[in-house]
Amino acid sequence: MTETALSLRNVDKFYGPIGHGVHAVRDVSMDFAKGEIVALLGSSGCGKTSTLRMIAGFEEVSRGSIMLADRDISRLAPAKRNVAMAFEGYSLYPPLTVRDNISFALKSTNLSAGDIAARVSEISDMLEIGDILDRYPSSISGGQQQRASLGRALVRDADLHLLDEPMGQLEPQLRALLRGRIKHFIKERGLTAILVTHDQTEANALADRIAVMEDGVLQQFDSPEVLRDKPSNLFTGTFVGEPPMNVFEAEVSAEKGTISLQFKNEMSLQYAAGSFSDEICEAMLSRQHVMIGVRPYAVRRTDKKGIRTKVAVNQWLGDQSHIAAEFAGGMLVLVEHDRAEVKPGQEIKIDLEPSSLHIFDRASGEAIAHGTELAS
Amino acid sequence: MASLELKNIAKRYKGETVLDDVSLSVAEGETLVLFGPSGAGKTVLLRLVAGVIEPDQGQVLIGGEDMTDTEAEDRGIGMAFQNFALFPHMSAFENIASPLEAQRATPGAIRAGVEAVARLLKIDHVLGHAPRELSNGQKQRTALARALAGAPPILLLDDPLRNVDAKLRFEMRLELPRLLAEQNATVIYVTQDYKEAMALGDRIAVMSNGRIEQIGTPADIYLDPANIDIASLFGDPIINLLEVTPAAGSKGLAAQISGVPVRLGNRDPAIAGQEMVMGIRPEAIGFVSAKSKAAIPVDVEAETPLNEKTVTLAKTAGGREILISRPAGTPGPASGKAYISIDGEAALLFAKSDGTRAGKGGQDLETEGEAA
Amino acid sequence: MEYTSPLEKTLRAIALTLVVIFFMFPILWIFLMSFQTNETILRVPPSVVFEPTLTNYQALITGKLETSAASLEINFMRNLFNSVFLSVASVAVAMLLGVPAAYAFARHKFRGSEDIAFTLLSFRFAPPLLVLLPLALYFQQIGLADTYIGLIWVYQLICLPLILWIVRGYFEDISPDIEYAYRIAGHSWFATFRKIALPLAGPGIAAAGLLAFIFAWNNFIFALVLASADKQPVTVGALAFITASGIQYGQIAAGIVLSIAPTLALALYAQKYLVEGLSLGAVKG
């Protein structure tokens, strides 16, 4: 997994004149390892699609270079890059059947007709489109079109597979199953895949590493676990994760061996100074105004000493309970995996361990420290 | 607040039946969720209640009064639309004010009313903006504010969170129950998202093909679905559906999965020998050691994290695909060979022929008691 | 990929210039002609250098045309007034009838509604003369020939289908949900028509009105057949410049400039409004 398949070096994208136009992608550098699945994640207009289109060759690289297997492909025509792509709008060829759409690119290779048929049948079984292979794109549903388009991209042998919002329209009943199958398919063949998505659930489910983008800037490029445990700033912290991270403004102060976090509405938390390393204590105290983030799954109800709060809502979703409790003028959300029997208005006690906290600078949003580091 | 009752509603469009003999009653102050896939007839039903579509047959009763032939403006309804349907040439303020204007409120009363509901929905700072200047979340809140402004006794919400991003949707899902409770309104809420349905509904009516298939509390629907389709609509990841033929053994009924008997617990023995589909939720399957009793060997195909859970796709020797879900952070294999155990007592059994529930077990009987 | 070389840019600029010249040249030439006498217009080779003169405009406005042969009475100003009056009145009548009809066609599909709408459009397909000759006879009989009312009535053949079809499209583009929302908020259907449908279709109504105005203004054949000199618009009136002693190119050019001025001004004025309105329509609620 260490061999680099693709790298972006200081890539910029301007729409309009360089330096004056809309700066859609700002100095992005990334390395993609061979056999890796990477998700470009961000809300619309964050630059993820521009980045993908530059890799595919549909957009000019304004500055910087794109290297595929050590050759600069920034100015190569799309067809010469050996890249397979599934488009967000599917872009199936309307006059061709689903079968011909999928096998289209294979026909220009030296695969035998038998091999092509075998591949098409394998991929269509995986994507549950075996029974619509002889239909035309206009006569199948959006979800089926999306699966056909995915099949057309995945069936190819390419150096790189680019998938633009590959699962947005999939039928909810198939989604979990197809996520598993597609991930297995890509991994089994050692394909390198880049997927663009605005849905952090999809990125988490499929990707080995996630590149979070916002305003054309690469915010963080790490594994889902690192994004969850050590988000580099407030944006990544709140963008990745469902339910989203709880965030509250707090003032830090220290006295007599305790560190105190003062929240709105007279709510405060005290921790023994020993809970935090000296370095982190200093970083927090020098800033004073911080944002405290807590992941919903890290908030625990407790019978012992804890913060008293009132339940605002308790929503049971079958496999999880989402409980929102009043906290510092807002809501603190906690997730439990069993059906929690608490009612709105009921008082509960919750525990916020130092190891569950994420501390961010309030002005810049940059992370100061994460719970997992605090305990050391 | 007013109760709402639909009696034998039927509606056809261009020869196709959109609603087929739908009867429904919603109690005063209740929130009823109409849930179903697109094309099930939910939106048509809602519009019929609103009075902008006329039924071919049947009656709409509001507060006990027959309103089938009453014009939309005289029914005392507030409605929020999926596409927001804001008046593009009016400011957010004018949008929200429109029901109050129709009630011929004084300018002062209109201003007070609009500001109160805008504060409640946290959009008081954008009241002067035109809809095109609002973010998606603000549009959605403006649409909701407009529906609430006239304090209507009946509130119809047509998939109002469909077009906002995941984070806003989650926030609103937590906020809505309180908001609706304060309104004292009878609510019909349409959605395609089972999580919204479970989170917001006092009761859920599951619709498909123009009919109400099942109606009950979220727990009734999730734990005791009437058929396979309903079972597969609720839950993410989807419920596993495995074809089995239960057989009576020395220790009661059991189904064979990959040659391993899965005990089904105390159920109607009449199902023995019949072709059935066993529905088993991913969270009712766990990884176990090879030595455990009734351990089923599988190949782990892929691990796909999902909202604080880890979902694993595994395949049995016979090629059956099984989804397994566990809380994130708990141990489990990411690839290779593994063993799972299925909690057969928690399984839902359906007749293979028509997908209806069969052979209800001890647990099912318990939940039924709870519902009653 | 979008690499544009300097050569490509130059070629593109040249091509664009050629297109502009091709379309703008006749208008520019007419404009120049209107300030020349017949002699300078007809000299060979033609030249853009000349002594400008206002005699053409003078002749039109005073109504006295002095030629080398004789002096001629023309009532161009009368024609201009007729054009304005006929066009404005026709469009006003067509709006009054057409806009509510368009709304009805857009919102209330009833049995035969498509057929009725299509029949109205089909008036546009028939050659005008086919309709005109029998009409001329009827009009003589019932005394509508050579009256403003008669002409305005006939002009509905031009204006009404245009307004109906264009405005109907705009009404159909308004999401019914927006109107439903207003109804459910407690307003009557008429209030909804007035406060929601009309303002939202406003740009479309303006565009249709403008088009109808231009079509009415440019009409030639109806007035030629159905009206005598004092009811004729400029299009027909311009015929007077083709005299026995020759064609008065200078006056024709001046007449054209004067007669396109109102439509041009209207189009320029409405352009900004139309573009604004169209982009507003594109932003869905």
List keywords for this structure.
heterotrimer; A: 376 residues; alpha+beta; Rossmann fold; OB fold (Dihydrolipoamide Acetyltransferase, E2P); 6-stranded mixed sheet; 6-stranded antiparallel sheet; 10 helices; 21 strands; globular; B: 372 residues; 2 domains; 5-stranded antiparallel sheet; 26% helix; 34% strand; disordered C terminus
Helix and strand layout, with pairings?
The complex is a heterotrimer of chains A (376), B (372) and C (285).
Chain A: E1 4-15, E2 22-33, E3 37-41, H1 48-56, E4 63-68, E5 71-72, E6 83-86, H2 98-103, H3 113-126, H4 142-154, E7 160-164, H5 172-189, E8 193-197, H6 200-206, E9 209-214, E10 217-222, H7 224-229, H8 234-239, E11 246-255, E12 258-262, E13 268-272, H9 278-287, E14 289-294, E15 300-301, E16 307-316, E17 321-327, E18 330-336, E19 347-351, E20 357-361, E21 367-370, H10 371-374
Parallel strand pairs in A: 3-8, 3-9, 6-7, 7-8
Antiparallel strand pairs in A: 1-2, 1-4, 4-5, 9-10, 11-12, 11-14, 12-13, 14-20, 15-19, 16-17, 16-19, 17-18, 20-21
Chain B: E1 4-13, E2 16-26, E3 31-35, H1 42-50, E4 57-62, E5 65-66, E6 77-80, H2 92-102, H3 107-120, H4 136-149, E7 154-158, H5 166-183, E8 186-191, H6 194-200, E9 203-208, E10 211-216, H7 218-223, H8 228-233, E11 240-244, E12 247-249, E13 252-257, E14 260-265, E15 276-280, E16 285-288, E17 296-306, E18 309-316, E19 321-327, E20 336-342, E21 348-351, H9 362-371
Parallel strand pairs in B: 3-8, 3-9, 6-7, 7-8
Antiparallel strand pairs in B: 1-2, 1-4, 4-5, 9-10, 11-15, 12-13, 13-14, 15-21, 16-20, 17-18, 17-20, 18-19
Chain C: H1 6-33, H2 38-42, H3 55-62, E1 64-66, E2 71-73, H4 76-107, H5 113-122, H6 128-142, H7 148-173, H8 176-184, H9 189-218, H10 221-226, H11 234-237, E3 242-243, E4 246-247, H12 249-282
Antiparallel strand pairs in C: 1-2, 3-4
Quickly describe the structure.
The complex is a heterotrimer of chains A (376), B (372) and C (285). With 372 residues, chain B is α+β, with helices and mostly antiparallel strands.
Walk me through the structure.
The complex is a heterotrimer of chains A (376), B (372) and C (285). In chain A, a hairpin with a 5-residue loop joins strand 12 and strand 13 (268-272). Chain A has ten helices and 21 strands. By secondary structure, chain A is α+β, with helices and mostly antiparallel strands. Chain A folds into two domains: 4-239, P-loop containing nucleotide triphosphate hydrolases (Rossmann fold); 246-374, Beta Barrel (OB fold (Dihydrolipoamide Acetyltransferase, E2P)). Chain A has helices spanning 48-56, 98-103, 113-126, 142-154, 172-189, 200-206, 224-229, 234-239, 278-287, 371-374, and strands at residues 4-15, 22-33, 37-41, 63-68, 71-72, 83-86, 160-164, 193-197, 209-214, 217-222, 246-255, 258-262, 268-272, 289-294, 300-301, 307-316, 321-327, 330-336, 347-351, 357-361, 367-370. Chain A starts with a strand and ends with a helix. In chain B, strand 4 (57-62) and strand 5 (65-66) form a beta hairpin. In chain B, the strands form five sheets. Chain B has a six-stranded mixed sheet, sandwiched between helices. A five-stranded antiparallel sheet of chain B has the order 16-20-17-18-19, with no helix packed on it. Chain B has two domains: 4-226, P-loop containing nucleotide triphosphate hydrolases (Rossmann fold, 3-Layer(aba) Sandwich); 240-371, OB fold (Dihydrolipoamide Acetyltransferase, E2P) (Beta Barrel). In chain B, helix 2 (92-102) crosses helix 3, helix 2 (92-102) runs parallel beside helix 4 (136-149) and helix 3 packs across helix 4. Chain B has helices at 42-50, 92-102, 107-120, 136-149, 166-183, 194-200, 218-223, 228-233, 362-371, and strands at 4-13, 16-26, 31-35, 57-62, 65-66, 77-80, 154-158, 186-191, 203-208, 211-216, 240-244, 247-249, 252-257, 260-265, 276-280, 285-288, 296-306, 309-316, 321-327, 336-342, 348-351. Chain B has 372 residues and is an alpha+beta fold. Chain C is mainly alpha-helical. Chain C has two domains: 6-73, no CATH class; 76-282, MetI-like fold, CATH 1.10.3720. In chain C, strands 1-2 form a two-stranded antiparallel sheet. A two-stranded antiparallel sheet of chain C has the order 3-4. In chain C, helix 1 (6-33) packs across helix 12. Chain C is globular and about 75 Å long. The model of chain C is unreliable at 280-285 (pLDDT under 50). Chain A binds chain B through residues 43, 172-177, 179-181, 183-184, 187, 198-201, 204-206, 224, 238-239, 242-244, 296-297, 312-313, 315-320, 322, 324, 331, 333, 335, 337, 344, and chain B through 165-167, 170, 173-174, 177-178, 194-195, 198-200, 218-219, 222, 232-238, 281-283, 301-309, 311-313, 321, 323, 325, 327-329.
